[in-house]
Amino acid sequence: MSPWKHNRRILFGVTGGIAAYKAPDILRGWRKEDCEVEVILTSSAEEFVSPLALSTLTGRKVWREKDFLSVEEGWKIPHITLTEWAEVFVIAPCTANCLRICAQGDGSTLLGAAMLANRNPLVIFPAMNPNMLGNPAVRANIDKITSMGHTVVGPDSGMLACGYEGKGRLPDNSVIYEHVWNALSPKKDLRGMKVLVTAGPTHEYIDPVRYISNPSSGKMGYAIAKAAWYRGAEVTLVSGPVSIPRPEGVRVIDVVSAEQMYEACIKEAPEMDIIVKAAAVGDFRAEEEIKQKLKRRDGEPLTVTFVQNKDIAAELGRMKKEGQMLVGFAAETQDLIANARKKMIAKNLDMIACNDVLANGAGFASDTNSLMIMTKGGSEVEFSGTKDDVADSLLDAVIRKKNKE
Ligand SMILES: Cc1cc2nc3c(=O)[nH]c(=O)nc-3n(C[C@H](O)[C@H](O)[C@H](O)COP(=O)(O)O)c2cc1C
Predict the structure, then answer these.
(1) Is residue 76 scored above 80 in pLDDT?
(2) What CATH number is attached to the domain comprising 43?
(3) Residue 73 confidence class, pLDDT cut points 50, 70, 90
(4) What is the pTM of this model?
(5) Quick check: CB of 96 below 6 Å from ligand 1?
(6) Residues 266-307: pLDDT tens digits?
(7) How many angstroms is it from 98 CA to the middle of ligand 1?
(8) What is the DSSP string of 245-281?
(9) Given the CA of residue 98, which atom of ligand 1 is nearest to it?
(10) Is 45 touching ligand 1 by the criterion CB < 6 Å?
(11) Which of 184, 214, 239 is where one domain is finished?
């Protein structure tokens, strides 16, 4: 976990939807990161979750409606002091009623007044019955809140506590945390930029049930996509087949083969300010597409002819537009620096990140990585750590290079 996710100050509004029963579990996740949490609980929410449970988990008093018009020693005026203290304001679950309060700027309750006094990022997670969510009044309130510059996330689709199936569920805790980390992220230097990241392996099918591939897990590319989203970019991720969770806030284009990855990248590239090619793309595919499953042939060997796939990085290098940064990856097993530099020049890349995939704690599937970064004419920089840390350092280097040009 990145150091900036620890010890943050979160103001947590809990409103009277059935999903309020999840509030203690949500705040436990923040407490595990040593974040301090102040809770404002609406009167309706008290019917669903006990103030005692919440205050036990925060180690603090829970702010209730009865506290609104009282001034506690050392706290001055609750709605003002709480918002001054916090770094982010999260409302989960947020009822239809609370959406209205926010959209209208209604300051007649503690939570409503706190939303008016708040100057921090406000991240709202509505949760309600699908019919309520589809109501034009609720839709209009969500649109208004979004246009006010606040973040409204979800809701998710699935089985709801009210017995309905549809859109209205509070997203999983992991999604809530990601949006809060995004709001708290200290660097927003990619705001207004479009970033394309490729990740994962490709599968090159020999017959309908067999393919050649490589052990890429997609973790490095996914970490870069997430880091770019944290830093404010609009991120598109072209992903080969992987089994790790999708990063939040990122548009994902799923592909299987190198040819599909090529098509997706060529289509998306002209719009992009930065392209990071972290996928482990198959260099070869079977020349002949065998339509039926190959059978054993009494010990006879199988010969498959492989032809070369199109070179995505080289094509992106050829079509690179003015000011666009193209960053490649080189997974090497020998002559790291020389091979990576050759690749960077040949493919017209602005930067290349290379790693020795045979080294311990680096490369495929590992949670950590060690990268050597080179720019044309620039010196080499090396950094290692978790893939999240390495992704962030890589983006630091990309921004440094972009600012120099
Ligand atoms: C059992 C029950 C479950 C409810 N669940 C929700 C819900 O999930 N979402 C919602 O917007 N309202 C829900 N409501 C309605 C709210 O509780 C009601 O609008 C209340 O005034 C909200 O107050 P608050 O926004 O101040 O917390 C529910 C009501 C009941 C009786």
Answers:
(1) no
(2) 3.40.50.1950
(3) low
(4) 0.91
(5) yes
(6) 999 999 999 999 999 999 999 988 889 888 888 888 888 999
(7) 9
(8) PPPTT-EEEE--SHHHHHHHHHHHGGG-SEEEE--B-
(9) 25
(10) yes
(11) 184
